[in-house]
Amino acid sequence: MDDNVKFFYGENVPLEMHKVRIVQRLNLLPIEKRFDAINEAGYNTFLLKNRDVYLDMLTDSGVNAMSDNQQAAMMQADDSYAGSETFTRLENKIQELFGKKYFLPMHQGRACENILSQNYVFQDSVIPMNYHFTTTKAHITINGGIVEELFLDEALVAKSENPFKGNMDIKKLRDLIEEKGADKIPFVRMEAGANLIGGQPFSLQNLEEVRKVCDDFGLKLVLDASLLQDNLYFIKNREEKCKNMSIKEITKAISDLSDIIYFSARKLGCARGGGMCMNDEEAYMQMREYVPLYEGFLTYGGMSVREMEAIVVGLDETMDEGIIEQGPKFIKYMTEELEKKGVPVVTPPGGLGCHLNAIEFVDHIPQSKYPAGALASALYLVSGVRGMERGTLSEERDKDGNDTLAHMELLRLALPRRVFTLSQIKYAVDRIAWLYENRKLIGGLKFVDEPRVLRFFFGRLKPITDWPDELYQKFKEDFGDSL
Ligand code: F0G
Q: Helix 422-437 vs helix 326-340: angle between axes, to the nearest 10 degrees?
């Protein structure tokens, strides 16, 4: 997949169009200590302490590097409970970029999902979407709703040439509405940069087609814009009819097609917070009631005013292609370097991070023994790199208590924007390649302590054999005392 990227050096070395002015000391523990750390963390990378991690590729959420202009804006925040100037600036920015009249502030993305679901989802409501996200699905199902994923068949093909694997299958959407009846469907949800299938974008064309179906059946279209930044970049660079549009124009076109937009500003806007915007007064008035109840007063919604100032600037910076290309460029580099070494990765490279295809990487581990979770633990052990399991562990059990086997078993290595250097990426690539050569040493995991909801956050597991010891021994043979 050849993106029309500007700032490259030589064949494929991405150039950083920023310089680093604040840094944080990192630790690279010896493997003995990493062995203890992963055991203490119950083989769950969420439970590792950051001081034991060398490269934290768990997520991009709330950990993107901020710009000097964001930090400067934070100093000017207007701290007041009600009617803060900062809120007005954020509301105006949302109106300017998305063209939506009403804005409801919320403390992060899942807070939006909570309020949206409480307002619209009832017992047996059906919510069609291009792909689910963990917290989205949890909020919909807790309110009695059913998630229907209408992805393209190709969405689940790890190695693909399709530039828009995040598209919704329009025929499936029509068929589902006809089968269930439009009155059962409170809204159709499209997720930008479909997270769980490898940060894969939808095209503007596809969103237009989804809109058309919504219009035919009188349905609302809700956009989860948390990963919009990368999706905008991909539309501009991969969709022929959009290549002469500015990022701002593409944003406006997407927004005009959507009735309600919500986002995690831990991703979009490169700060910490979230919110929802719409033109529909009724939707606004209904959901407004929940904000003081769950979030905070209507002019901060659980966010610090400093973060709100940072979002205003961050959203503006999201409109600059020279800024937002950094993430996809680094992800592309990492993915292609791994591919050269034969490591199974998700292609085309998406947004958010580089995704290892665990089902192929450790094809000797059945899904019931959590291959992507095992790979996450193994990678931490041999490198100090922390990734996130995006597979069966991240699913909920069904009503009968059986594991729901995920469509894909991925190890996501998130690249928070402007955080890592190219030599750090190269280190990760080298260790992943070593692990791939020694993959047969990796074994499965089983739960020892399993929470009922969103179990991947706090669940504790253990290896089903003593495979971590064998991996440790092999590492020592090959690397001696080096880290
Ligand atoms: N929607 C999408 C597409 C997301 O990726 C996330 C968060 C949320 C909603 C929820 O937002 O975290 O602010 O409550 N994704 C993070 C991740 C957690 O690591 O991918 P939140």
A: 30
